[in-house]
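FORM 7B: Structural annotation worksheet

SECTION A. Query
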Amino acid sequence: MNITIIGGGNIARALLGGLIARGNGSDALAVVEIDAEARATVAARFGVATFSAIEPAAVVNADVIVIAVKPQNVRIVARELATLLKRQVVLSIAAGIRLSDLSRWLLGYRRLVRAMPNTAALIGAGIAGLYALSGVDSEGRSRAAAVLEAVGSTLWCEREDELDAVTAVSGSGPAYVFYFLEALEQAARELGFTPAEARR
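SECTION B. Predicted structure
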């Protein structure tokens, strides 16, 4: 499966690492990243093709195109991508961008999947809720899921608004656990344990 990731930040790097670890060849992966330093880092670390802009060569062979940019940049990305789409599945992991908006920005394109991975994806232990428009067939759904399974588990949602619930639990849940662990560490210190002992 050929995958192009638009954006070269932390989640993109986690996806690349996970995909390569699961047997995807680096020659089947590409990244579009406007920042020269980030682009060079991705190329050196993962050995994938990199592009400084969205262009035909970056997406023509892709089965899945992952939009992994900040939400405020999705509309710009969509405008640049709109005329280059054929049958690719477009997987957006940009927080808060509804597929109705993305479809409109992509000139009515409907092979769209939205996903919300949590921060645990950065260490390959994440969970992501996914929602697909009706234009995505079973093969497209499988491909989108395979991308995210490189960094954890997946859960398909029947309605897009269910992604908010998944995000509330899987995204915020780890924060509650960390908060609890910090409280335990602080309690141990107050009982006389050294910081190193308290962290154990």
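SECTION C. Observations
The mean pLDDT is 91. The beta strands are 3-6, 29-32, 49-51, 64-67, 89-92, 112-117, 126-132, 152-156.

SECTION D. Sign-off
Analyst initials: ____
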